[in-house]
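Hello,

Our lab assistant flagged a job as stuck in the queue for most of the afternoon. It eventually completed. Since we weren't sure the result was trustworthy after the delay, we are filing this so someone can double-check. Below is the sequence as submitted and the structure that was eventually returned. Let us know if re-running is recommended.
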Amino acid sequence: MLRWANENLLQLKPEEIGEHYGRYRLHVPEAERAMAKSLERYGQLSPVVVCRRGERYELIDGFKRLAVARNLTQIDVLSARLMEADERTLKPPSTASIAPAGARGNWKKRGSFTPWCARMA
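-- returned structure --
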């Protein structure tokens, strides 16, 4: 089950955010370079999404933003939304079905994976 913990944004240092769920993500170097340019030019436009896993915040959405923020000296903290979610909900059914950023329009064709944000509706 997924739901927002509250409406308030957290201000977290990049080192306070774990990437346990990052193993389910595909890395697309072009998209990461584009994110770096965007964060340098505009700053953070949308919050990352985190959940609590034990005593630590774990990233659910915003992996490129977090990776770039860890390498930019001008970003000390990231705005984050806290989501309540159980372990089962956060894991995709098949990591092979996740499309890279450039193929998002075709994700339905790749398998039955439903993005976590679509499950909130």
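-- support follow-up --
The delay was a queue issue, not a problem with the job. The result is valid. Confidence is low (pLDDT under 50) at residues 93-99, 104-121. Residues 29-42 form the longest helix (14 residues).
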